[in-house]
Amino acid sequence: MYSFLDQDITYLKGVGQARAQLLASELDIHTVADLLHHYPFRHEDRTRIYRIDELHEGMQNIQLRGQIIDVSTVGEGPKRRLMATFTDGTGFITLIWFRSLKTISKMCQIGVTYQVFGEPKVFQHSFSIPHPEMEVMEQVQNRPLLRMQPVYHLTEKLQGRGITSKFLNQLVANAFDKIASIPETLSSDLITAHRLVSHEQAIRDIHFSQSAEAVSNARRRLKFEELFFLQLSILQYARSRQTVTEGWRFPRVAEKFNAFYSHVLPFSLTEAQKRVIREIHADLKSGHQMNRLLQGDVGSGKTIVAALVALLAIDNGFQACIMAPTEILAEQHYSGLCDQMQQIGVNVALLTGNVKGKQRRETLEGIKEGSISILVGTHALIEPNVEFRNLGLAVIDEQHRFGVKQRAQLWTKNSRPPHILVMTATPIPRTLAMTVYGDLDVSVIDQLPPGRKTIATRHFASREYERIRQGVEMELRRGRQVYIVYPLIKENEKLDLKALEEGYEETQRRFPQWKVGMVHGKMKPAEKDAAMKAFAANETQILVSTTVIEVGVNVPNASVMIVENAERFGLAQLHQLRGRAGRGAEQSYCILVTKDQLAENTHERMQILVETNDGFRIAEADLKFRGPGDLEGTAQSGLPIQLKMASLVGDSVMMSEAREAANRIIEADPGEQLPQYRVLWTRLRQLKANQTNYSDIS
């Protein structure tokens, strides 16, 4: 029956060309199927009629039955409003309207029984309902009672043209009048195993339901279905990648790796690092191209893992490259690797925009003829004139700063694509990572090296700055250095830049005996690099900055991170900033400075950072407080299956359940041949037909 579902929306009663164009442009509704899958985002429970004497402060939408006993117009000009006194015999409440007064005054008939719906507000100890929905009881009784009233996402433009939630719901009803049945989209074993209602039942109940339980069951079915097909798509792609994309084999663990491990490694690896190296080596031996994400908190030792993996490539006759998002971070990686690799005779080179002339020509030649084993650089690595003799591994640091396409450009640097290891210090829950980075396998370093001191975090109100100043001065007298970070939000760029500059001048006044530097994104790259290098060399003792230092140079001597207006940052970002301190052996501190008066949840957010240094716990808390936000939006824009009902963040438990189910199907029917799963593969193809596969980076 999908033929009718695929019909243009104009086939439905109540939709002409003008409305069809509006529904298409505003809600992306083109067909009957699109309409059925435009789900309500909430339902208003119309199952209960309240008495006025039951009302109390803080109630959400409620429903009343009673009569209007008085109507009057009050005020002049923009303050003019219509007020009606409403009673059900147990008390009185005022109904108020601020617009369409003429129309509504005609509706308000004294002595007529109405059903009223809206949110009660308290003003001067009396209840009122602004702009209530109001229907004559006679009309209510003469139509079928839909107890769970659906509320749909609408735009202002649609509402201005009379397209309301009631109108959309009526359109859906008109569609159901013409639909004999809606085909099932899940296999019977999935429906039984996960105790799901049918697809048709879920669609009916999400639009037309008589109970909260039915709505809940419908939502659960639709969420599971979306997450299942999302995971099925991702796992299907992962399998095809493994079978289709051949990779170089690195079976040998030989001279360079062993020499580095035995004689150069400055500390013992954690169990988490060892586990991750084993996972990576299994990929490198498999004969399939590796595409792996390495997640690890700030200071967990991802860089040393990358160095060891690079040596596995070299021991097997290949080159490796490491790509960083900024020149200063690339230079830092290069400097650290040079010191270590020199000891075992491995040649490392640097390629950034600052490498020019003879040095650049020699570097490009060394890469091409193979005398350079490890190339470190910025996106300069993906330029067409960079030719490797035999690139076997590409490591991408702070992967969220590079797009999929940039990653893909590294594929062209050898006759067969190199193995790809991408790293991030932005922790997100593993299940979510497996979806957001669906084209990547995920490894996690969830352990910090032993002996690393926890960064002590304190929260101060701005009125307590004298205490902060004294503590900072104490650290400076010990020869330590200090970061002071200000927010820089695009919408308030001019204002924020002014605050930064004022903060810089204030810092100079507060600490006259020490040198103060400043860094922000509006500076020329050369100026910015010079300021950061001066701080790294201890030529300046205090660096006043924006979040440009979030991914930047490591300064082990910097023991204090002060974040001004900390309430304006997300928890994950504050945690990243905090990690800029604590790179040395000494005790380090993070000082969160907020305005004096804070909302309760803001105080709670700051307290989480005070209590824990666990990046994964902080990431989960951040998602809880701010919701999926940008993360989900970014993820959604590239997901192979778009989510209308489910949430990547809010439904993480169900997502794990859906992933396990999808994995079982993939294992049971890799060739997509079993008759009991034909319905699944057919539906997946339908869903993907008009979607861009974000994982297709060829």
CATH superfamily of one domain: P-loop containing nucleotide triphosphate hydrolases
Structural class: alpha/beta
Share of residues in helices: 40-55%
Major sheet details: 7 strands, mixed
Q: Main sheet: which strands, in order across?
A: 6-7-4-3-2-5-8
Mean pLDDT equals 84
CATH architecture title of one domain: 3-Layer(aba) Sandwich
Number of helices: 26
- What is the general shape? globular
Question: Radius of gyration, rounded?
Answer: 31 Å
Please give the number of β-strands. 22
Low-pLDDT ranges: 628-638, 692-698
**CATH class type of one domain:** Alpha Beta
Rounded to the nearest angstrom, the distance between the terminal CA atoms is: 37 Å
State which percent range the strand residues make up: 15-25%
Report what the structure shows.
The chain is an alpha/beta fold and 698 residues long. Among the domains are: 47-145, Nucleic acid-binding proteins (OB fold (Dihydrolipoamide Acetyltransferase, E2P)), CATH 2.40.50.140; 255-286 and 301-424, Rossmann fold (3-Layer(aba) Sandwich), CATH 3.40.50.300; 456-612, 3-Layer(aba) Sandwich (Rossmann fold), CATH 3.40.50. The chain is 42% helix and 17% strand. The chain contains 26 helices and 22 strands. A 7-stranded mixed β-sheet has the order 6-7-4-3-2-5-8. A 7-stranded parallel β-sheet has the order 12-13-11-14-15-10-16, sandwiched between helices. Strands 17-22-21-18-20-19 form a 6-stranded parallel β-sheet, sandwiched between helices. Strand 6 and strand 7 form a beta hairpin. The longest helix is centred in the first third of the chain and has 33 residues, at 212-244.
